[in-house]
Amino acid sequence: MDLQLENKLFLVGGATSGLGRAIAEQLVAEGANVLAVARTESKLQELQQLSNGIEIIAGDLSQPEVLNAILTKIGNRVLTGAVINSGGPPAMPVMDTKLSDWDAAYKTVVRWKIGLTQALLPKMMEHSYGRLLFIESVSTKQPVENLVLSNAMRLAITGYVKTLSQEIGASGVTLNILGPGYHATQRMENLFAKNSELKGIPEAEIRKSFSAQTAVKAIGKPANFASLAVWMLSPYSGYITGQTITVDGGLVKGTMG
């Protein structure tokens, strides 16, 4: 299936690892051009070897200078879509959190995404077309144990995306959220390690217990997640906006999952 992405420009955050990397790779495979953003320059340079269509920016998306660098790099070109994605706050239970943890989590999960959206949206609306895809978490539908900061802050993004999608629905720009469940990423490895530490159980047993929570009894593959993300970035998804879609192997038990 031709997703009609050839030579189109996409911004991908967190592009050097996990789900962000998988999305960047599949966009390139579709002939798209990718502006890849991540913290580590060496990993970005490694990613850039995949295609001449990859441009890179090293830095933390929560920092104003990185946003300025993105806007400068885009310049007068048409940005077709953006994958708004970055790492989450540290794993911890509610009673271990301090107010400073909540302040930091707001900056990590919420604040920069609103700033980036506000910067990109006007240009997309000028062209009556755009795809804004937020990569959040299955916790938008069902809390994840020992991830209270992520559980709470990602719900703020769902409210923001839903509200904005209603306000600009006729503009040609769509906004949607994908909520990944348990996928084979470094983020999940960190969560396995934290749960192992808290419960005094070997990581292998923790990993097995996480798999058992899903309907398919398995941890997801980033490439499979990316295939849906890239379709959501294509023209074919134009009648979908304001939605939070979980990609979780049947982890969410509620009928609205």
From TrEMBL:
Under the heading Pfam families, the entry gives: adh_short_C2 (PF13561)
For this protein, the parts annotated as crossing the membrane are: none
What Gene3D superfamilies is this protein classified in?
NAD(P)-binding Rossmann-like Domain
What's the superkingdom here?
Answer: Bacteria
Give the UniProt family note.
Answer: Belongs to the short-chain dehydrogenases/reductases (SDR) family.
Organism from which the protein derives: Aggregatimonas sangjinii
> What name has this protein been given in UniProt?
SDR family oxidoreductase
Q: Which InterPro entries match?
A: NAD(P)-bd_dom_sf, SDR, SDR_fam
